[in-house]
Amino acid sequence: MPRRKNSVVIQKNKIKEVTKTVGASQRLVALMLDVNYTTVSSWNSNTTQPSEENLNQIGELLQRDNRDLLEPQGRVNTGLAKALEQELKRLYKEEGMPYEVEKLDEKKGVKVKVNNPELIKKLREFAKSYKK
């Protein structure tokens, strides 16, 4: 489903616009990719998105870079990743929180290492407070 913000569809791709610009039809795209015409229609309306393989094939057909087929997401670098990395190091070094913990795999009956759920929780809380 498309992402909605106040009942407005947030466009994720520009396949429809690029197809028109180069003079191709939805039918041609469907035939060349060997997909159903309604699949291309749903990509054009941003109801669904093409797989990476299909996006590559569309780019080849329309002779456009994949980046030209996708709508920028408007993300702004706030330094979150760097701050999270510093917090991860702090939690590991100062608080002694391990990256992984052992957990019993009930199906196999053996202990396996998994990402530390408490560490994940703390990082997510940090990220949430950082965004505010």
Q: Any overview of this molecule?
A:
With 132 residues, the protein is of the alpha+beta class. It has two domains: 4-69, lambda repressor-like DNA-binding domains (434 Repressor (Amino-terminal Domain)); 80-131, no CATH class. The chain is built from seven helices and four strands, in the order ββααααααββα. It has a two-stranded antiparallel sheet. The chain has a two-stranded antiparallel ribbon with strand order 3-4. Helix 6 runs antiparallel to helix 7 (117-131). The longest helix is centred in the last third of the chain and has 15 residues, at 117-131.
> If you consult CATH, what is the topology of the largest domain?
434 Repressor (Amino-terminal Domain)
Total separate domains:
2
CATH arch. level architecture of the largest domain? Orthogonal Bundle
Shape verdict = elongated
Structural class: alpha+beta
* CATH class assignment of the largest domain: Mainly Alpha
Separate helix tally: 7
- What is the number of E strands? 4
Q: Low-confidence parts lasting 5 or more residues at pLDDT below 50?
A: 1-9
Q: What kind of sheet is the major sheet?
A: 2 strands, antiparallel
The main sheet orders its strands as 1-2
Could you report the average pLDDT, rounded to the nearest whole number? 90
